[in-house]
């Protein structure tokens, strides 16, 4: 199995969300997880797909489905009349269609696997009914496997505290695909939203988005040998524990910005995230820390000082909405004046969500906006100006 097909190791997870491209092995991951639960002890499970046909043909009897995992003499038995898969130890997995949310009222389960969540007509209605039924055993869990689409329901699911999100592109499972499949589709759709969504498993922009996937795909490039200036931009968490602290390293060379790293951390104390900022400053030789001061003001400066940060701190304050602050930065991406020196899928997903609503606080994207604004839009305007008449 590939790393993305292994369930989370974090003990407090409630929902395992696997976002993957076509053929990335999502179905196999869900099938292995359900089969493992069923064989470990006597349990009742739920299988939910876009339609009953999908549950049987893909999740149960498909090439990567549950029945395909076991040896011929040890496979669970499909009972069509009761729409359930039955193991020899008595464990059962019942099939449900996302076309009928009310069918999930009443039954109760130890665990559930929901497939192609973004293809459901009423994803939140189905998901809520399913969760009310996850009430058996000591620790009922939910696995959700889907090719992502930019729908609010998915963004809200990703933002939940108990959700652990994994991502996998089609390339991660290339060895199990037909020769030439990936190269052919990349040649056809490379650099487009379709490639990002269907092959890379990224949540692309939705209605009202400020950043475009085409601009982000075009922004890939190498880091220059030398940079004029480097800053570490910080979006501090609103609370002392649990929230993410956005940490993004940005450099400038002449009239272009270079995103060097996303060092965002989650679940750390102020001392912890300040230490991560100090490490980023040292690793990249940053000359300044740009930190939003709305949540903590001088406390942010004090925490960073206690972490022995080797760069001065400039506190910035948000007087406009996140979308309004991001608009000038989005224009720089359209102009091709920002380069991403690496792969930053989590950061880019937050950027693509800006302006759409319905998701978690964009800590990474906020930090990015502060950093690029400081280097490209503020510093260039500082100092005396010459006007030619």
Automatic annotation (TrEMBL):
InterPro entries assigned: P-loop_NTPase, Terminase_6C
Residue intervals passing through the bilayer: none
Keywords, alphabetical: Viral release from host cell
Domain Terminase large subunit gp17-like C-terminal: 233-372
Pfam family, one: Terminase_6N
KW Cytoplasm (keyword) present: no
Name of this protein: Terminase family protein
Organism: Brevundimonas albigilva
């Amino acid at each position: 199995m590939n790393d993305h097909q292994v369930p989370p190791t974090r003990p407090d997870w409630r929902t395992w969300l696997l976002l993957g491209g076509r053929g990335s092995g999502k179905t196999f991951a869900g099938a292995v997880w359900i089969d493992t639960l069923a064989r470990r002890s006597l349990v009742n499970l739920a299988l939910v797909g876009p339609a009953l046909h999908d549950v049987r043909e893909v999740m149960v009897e498909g090439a990567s489905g549950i029945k395909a995992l076991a040896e011929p003499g040890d496979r669970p038995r499909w009972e069509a009349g009761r729409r359930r898969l039955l193991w020899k130890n008595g464990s059962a997995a019942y099939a449900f269609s996302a076309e009928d949310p009310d069918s999930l009222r009443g039954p109760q389960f130890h665990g559930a696997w929901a497939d192609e969540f973004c293809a459901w007509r009423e994803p939140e209605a189905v998901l809520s009914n399913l969760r009310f039924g996850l009430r058996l055993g000591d620790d009922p869990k939910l696995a959700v496997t889907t090719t992502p689409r930019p729908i609010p329901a998915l963004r809200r699911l990703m933002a939940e505290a108990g959700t652990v999100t994994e991502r996998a592109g089609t390339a991660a499972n290339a060895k199990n695909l037909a020769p030439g499949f990936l190269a052919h589709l990349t040649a056809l759709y490379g650099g487009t939203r379709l490639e990002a969504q269907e092959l890379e498993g990224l949540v692309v922009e939705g209605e009202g988005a400020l950043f475009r996937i085409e601009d982000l795909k075009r922004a890939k490039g190498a880091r220059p040998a030398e940079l004029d200036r480097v800053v570490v931009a910080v979006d501090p968490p609103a609370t002392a524990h649990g929230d993410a602290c956005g940490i993004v390293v940005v450099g400038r060379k002449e009239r272009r910005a270079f995103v060097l790293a996303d060092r965002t951390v989650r679940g750390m104390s102020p001392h912890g995230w300040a230490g991560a900022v100090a490490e980023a400053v040292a690793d990249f030789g940053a000359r300044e820390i740009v930190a939003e001061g709305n949540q903590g003001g001088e406390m942010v400066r004090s925490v960073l000082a206690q972490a022995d940060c080797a760069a001065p701190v400039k506190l910035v304050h948000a007087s406009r909405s996140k979308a309004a602050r991001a608009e000038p930065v989005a224009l720089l991406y359209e102009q091709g004046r920002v380069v991403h020196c690496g792969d930053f899928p989590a950061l880019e997903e937050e950027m693509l969500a800006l302006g759409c609503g319905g998701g978690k606080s964009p800590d990474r994207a906020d930090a990015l906006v502060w950093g690029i604004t400081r280097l490209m839009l503020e510093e260039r305007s500082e100092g005396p100006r010459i006007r030619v008449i």
